[in-house]
Amino acid sequence: MSPTDLDRLSSAIRDVQDFPKEGIVFKDITPVLGDPALFRLAIDGLVEFIDGQRVDKIVGIDARGFIFGAAVADRIGCGLVPVRKKGKLPWKTHEISYALEYGEATVEIHEDALIEGETVLLVDDLLATGGTSAAALELVKRQGGDIIGAAFFIELGFLDGRKVLEAEAAGEFPVKALLTY
Q1: Domain of 161?
Q2: What is the DSSP string of 36-85?
Q3: Most buried pick, 37, 43, 153, 166, via CB within 10 A?
Q4: pLDDT in tens, 54-86
Q5: How far is the CA of 77 from the CAs of 54, 58, 70, 100, 105, in angstroms?
């Protein structure tokens, strides 16, 4: 993806002060989602990360990861697996809890979502602290998925989520983001 394309995407992202709470600068991606050319450009960039590798399933994280993950899955012709907050999936699930800066959260995946040995790319809109993504990757590993990478539209580099995921990856797969702030 060219620097000009990355600049176009970055300039469309809106900073929202003090959302969802005071002191937070929220990166609002809805202008990108609402512009078909920009959304297509974002998906193009995420697809580039695959670099010709076989992908059987995209794992998208609740909720904006579903948007990006579904588009990437459709583009490359593979399945989509949702990782959701506890209690949102209708079938038998595997779950994992992880620490947040203010407590604990739990995410789930259907127990039959992956077949052992399937290749998986994690896709989400945002890499922040890495906790949710690391939990999702652990669920994939428990089901025998072969993780080929983790791809994000935006990374908040100052929150060090990449370090968390790179530790989880142990050099086995890359962690990539289109835009880093």
Answers
A1: 52-180
A2: HHHHHHHHHHHHHTTTT---SEEEEETTHHHHHHHHHHHHHT-EEEEEEE
A3: 153
A4: 999 999 999 999 999 999 999 999 999 999 999
A5: 10, 10, 10, 34, 32
Q: Which of 47, 46, 41, 33 is nearest to 5 (CA)?
A: 41
Which DSSP string corresponds to 12-32? HPEEEET-SSTT-EEEE-HHH
CA–CA gap between residue 45 and residue 10 (Å, rounded)? 13
The token pair that represents 162 in the structure block = 């990449």
Give the distance from CA 173 to its chain's centroid: 14
Residue 102 has pLDDT above 80, yes or no: no
Residue 14 lies in a domain: no
CATH number of the domain encompassing residue 86: 3.40.50.2020
Write the single-letter amino acid at 174.
P
Active site residues: 64, 101
Q: For the chain, how many structural domains are there in total?
A: 1
Give the C-alpha separation, 1 to 168, whole Å: 27
pTM of the model: 0.95
Both tokens of 61, joined, read 């994280």
Q: Which amino acid is at 106?
A: T
Asked whether residue 11 is assigned to any structural domain, the reply reads: no
Q: Is the residue at 10 inside a domain?
A: no
